[in-house]
Amino acid sequence: MKKVYGSAAEALEGVLHDGMLIAAGGFGLCGIPELLLNAIRDAGTKDLTFASNNAGVDDFGIGILLQTKQVKKMISSYVGENKEFMRQYLGGELELEFNPQGTLAERMRAGGAGIPGFYTKTGVGTVIAEGKEHKDFDGETYILERGIVADLAIVKAWKADDTGNLVFRKTARNFNPPAAMCGKICIAEVEEIVPRGSLGGDAIHLPGIYVHRIIQGDHEKRIEQRTVRTA
Amino acid sequence: MAWDRNQMAARAALELQDGWYVNLGIGIPTLVSNYIPEGMDVTLQSENGMLGMGAFPIEGEEDADLINAGKQTITELDRTSYFDSSTSFGMIRGGKIAMAILGAMEVAENGDLANWMIPGKLVKGMGGAMDLVAGVGRVVVVMDHASKHGDSKVLKECTLPLTGKAVVDRIITNLGVLDVVEGGLKIVECAEGVTEEELRAATLATIV
After folding, report:
1. Which of A24, A196, B17, B188 is the most exposed place for a label (fewest CB within 10 A)?
2. B207 within some domain
3. DSSP assignment, residue B35?
4. The domain spanning residue B186 has which CATH number?
């Protein structure tokens, strides 16, 4: 079965529909599926819910889909870098479900691993715990959190082979593996598609079973907080 | 007189122990890495998926794929390992990280911590803070003792939405060091030039 597609738009064909839930990889602007986000903007799909740690910045990442009002709801842990997000949220145009970062990552992993819910002590005694089942284990209180299964997962990796095996680079791995796992369909954009066998089976970060479509393209890879020391 | 940001970070560095894996929050806690004692083996975790965090890069060597949890460019060390976010929070929630040093907006005498939200004003999110305070072995808060308006941030009860309930072990401020103990806070030490009376007067929490 052919997994490699010619462009982000081609890879998204037949996959998008209004009101869908999309899980996106990335942390800040690091390791985000920028080509697929651009293509979703061009496709004009509306009322989207994104499970994504962050919401990009005003003109990059998920931020571009906020500009075009294509996003109905965000499930995120931190959205502090995006003025348009704040404007829409405070104006009541955008729903926001805050998830603690580790809870969000585990909800994706669990959803992809066939686990519909799990207990965690994260958030006990805070607003996050309100309305959730509480249960004591060994004298400590935990809350029930649900696994996420997304209609579509969009991720960014460094390299792929044509079977969808992925390798990430440094901290650009972040949410990409759990996001990929929780998608009914997963599309990966990579910097380079390499021949089968050249990645080495022991070095694969995410097995191709989780990846259904792959595209290769040029990435801007914008830096959010360029910080240097004086030598 | 009181401690400045760097002196607070230097004091917080005394909390480190050889062999520990530690997570440093954004702001003053980040400065703690400048004061790790020579010869002490401490590995810094960045919750976006890295153990063994190095210094900021020199100009021209920034790598868009290599950032810390504050989204700043950083470098790697020879001990560095990378992993995904669910693995990262597995080690946090699982108690493998010995200590987190975090900033705060408010801390209460029972160890309640508020550092993620001001209703109606600041809606940024908790990031990894709720997972960290719930999971790591020891939570040390480093912050100014009072807000910009001069109000004590060391309270009987937090007024802001909580990040964690009864999670703080030790508070380091510009005025001194306090431990969360049965019945309230216990003064561990006063900052240079600060008297115990001044520290008590600046604190709304019960001091035992």
Report:
1. A196
2. no
3. G
4. 3.40.1080.10
What positions of B carry a catalytic annotation? 47
Q: Determine the residue among B46, B53, B58, B65 to mutate to test chain A binding: the one whose Cβ has the most chain A Cβ atoms within 10 Å.
A: B65
Rounded to the nearest angstrom, the minimum Cα separation between A56 and chain B is 12
Domain-embedded: residue B136: yes
This model's pTM is above 0.95: yes
Spell out the residues 6+ positions from residue B33 whose beta carbon is closer than 8 angstroms to its own.
B24, B44, B53, B55
The residues, any chain, with a CB within 8 Å of residue B31's CB and separated by 6 or more, are B5, B6, B9
Spatial contact of A68 and A41, defined as CB atoms under 8 Å apart: yes
Q: Which residue has the tokens 């002490």?
A: B40
CB A53 within 8 Å of CB A27 = yes
| Separation in Å, CA of A127 to nearest CA in chain B | 7
**In the prediction, which pLDDT does B1 show?**
73
For residue B26, the number of C-alpha atoms closer than 13 Å in the C-beta half-sphere is: 16
Distant-in-sequence, close-in-space partners of B32: CB < 8 Å, separation ≥ 6: B9, B12, B13, B16, B24, B101, B142
Whether B164 is covered by a domain: the verdict is yes
Which residues 6+ apart lie within 8 Å of A51 measured at CB?
A21, A22, A23, A24, A75, A76, A104, A107, A108, A148, A150, A179, A182
> Are B18 and B29 in contact, with CB atoms under 8 Å apart?
no
* B186 neighbors B207 (Cβ within 8 angstroms): yes
Assess if residue B195 is contained within a domain. Answer: yes
Would you list the DSSP string of A59-74? TBTTHHHHHTT-EEEE
Domain, as residue range, for B182? 5-201
Of all residues in chain A, the one with the smallest CA distance to B60 is A228
For residue B99, the number of C-alpha atoms closer than 13 Å in the C-beta half-sphere is: 19
Tens digit of pLDDT for each residue in A186-208?
A: 999 999 999 999 999 999 999 99
pLDDT computed for residue B27 by the predictor: 87
CA distance A208 to A38: 24
pLDDT per residue over B49-98, tens digit each?
Answer: 999 999 999 999 999 999 999 999 999 999 999 999 999 999 999 999 99
Structural domains counted in chain B: 1
The question of ipTM being above 0.85 is answered as: yes
